[in-house]
Amino acid sequence: MSKFNRREFFQVSTIGGLALSLPLNLKAGGPKNKKEKLDPYFSSVGRFSHSFLRKIANKYGSPTYIYDWDLIKTRYLEFSDGFKKHYPKVKVHYAYKANTNLNIVSYLTSLGAGAECISIGEMSFALKAGQTGKNIIFTSNSKSEEELGFAIKNNILINIDSLSGLENLEKVLKKVKSKSRVCFRINPDVETSSTHKHISTGHKFTKFGLMYLNGDIYKAAKRAIENNLISFEGIHSHIGSQILESKPFEKNANILCSIALEIKRKFGHEISFINMGGGLGIPYRDNQARFSPERLASIVCPIIKKSFSKFKNLPEVWLEPGRYLVAEAGVLLSRVNSVKMTDITNFINVDTGFNHLARPIMYEAYHRVRILNGKSKTKKFQVAGNICETGDMLTKDRLLPKPEVGDILALLDSGAYGFTMASEYNSFYLPAEVAIKGKSDYLIRKREDFDDLLRNQKIQKSLI
Ligand SMILES: Cc1ncc(COP(=O)(O)O)c(C=O)c1O
What we know:
The chain has helices spanning 6-9, 50-60, 69-84, 102-111, 120-128, 145-153, 163-176, 216-226, 247-267, 293-307, 323-326, 359-363, 450-454; strands at residues 10-15, 18-23, 64-68, 90-95, 114-117, 136-139, 157-160, 180-187, 210-211, 230-236, 273-275, 316-319, 330-341, 346-350, 369-371, 379-384, 398-400, 408-411, 432-437, 440-445. It is an alpha/beta fold.
């Protein structure tokens, strides 16, 4: 044991908000012999060895996203069980925007998750993954008539974002002579200091939600209650993403509860759920502490229980985690194309870039990086993508071993907002996706080729 780092042999599990160390069950990705080191930071359970990941990269090519199936399950159960310990009626809706591979969304459906969707595409993925409309939420600040029609037809819950959006829905309902289930997204004016400004969604200057401050939420609630084509079921707020502090969640819970109580006082209407949104962050950095779902539950659930003690029924608590369920399960494997050492800085040039992992350029996001060559750290390097833009840097200065051309470089925690944000910019092909479950690896999306780039283009001879 002395040769190995303690974390290589212990899986961190969170029970009751406390991080516990459990013996790690070494599976497919485990070391073949004791001399080969497991990288303790591959994911928070350190399941894959370098040689295993090299094998996967050689088998499927590069760049390739891989997903640890067992970790997706662990994170889902951590979320739903963590909340169920603190509240009797809980529903977890997976936020599809984090990753829509059909295998992932179908797996989460089988584990019991519902779906939070933003577009007809995402709603269609949810239906294909075995969801019924009853378990799908359609949330968007800008819904077209076509999208509303699709949601109505499939009995999907429509999350209304503005008074104008409510009017549009009323018109469509009249036109199609149908009813619809509705909830309201609220802008609670809650600031989040721990997250990037582009993913802070709950303060008053964002485009999201009916304002709590100016009372728009009550105007909307009154209209919905008076409209017999609308069944007004609940309220919602999503205050941002990658949040690792308790105060904003606590403030949001208090505001949602006070709104629900005011709706009951003003109109005598009792809602059946409070949707707290997603947003729980993950530890992207080596020394960042985990904020467990159970800790979140221990903060928000007592607020809801206390507020609703005089209601006939306690409302259900709904959650919409995306990142927390899939981010840590994902690793983007790429290959080193060249290594450029200069007097000013050192670059590792890889065969992927912001076209496949946009988070660094979009949110200045930090992803841990490992070079799978078994050497120890030597120099500061920047990992540069292959896109023809100066901004295409996947990391700033990092202490890394000097790679050889052809070495595999792994970008960790890339399972959420990785592939779903990928594009075909510079006409690079979208990467393959591979699932690792138990001892087996499965191709769950083949790498694109030139035919995929051409797929929807039409050659018009008269233009050429
Ligand atoms: C309405 C809504 N719900 C849930 C989520 C999921 O957030 P996260 O992945 O941070 O949990 C998002 C993300 O942007 C969102 O916009």
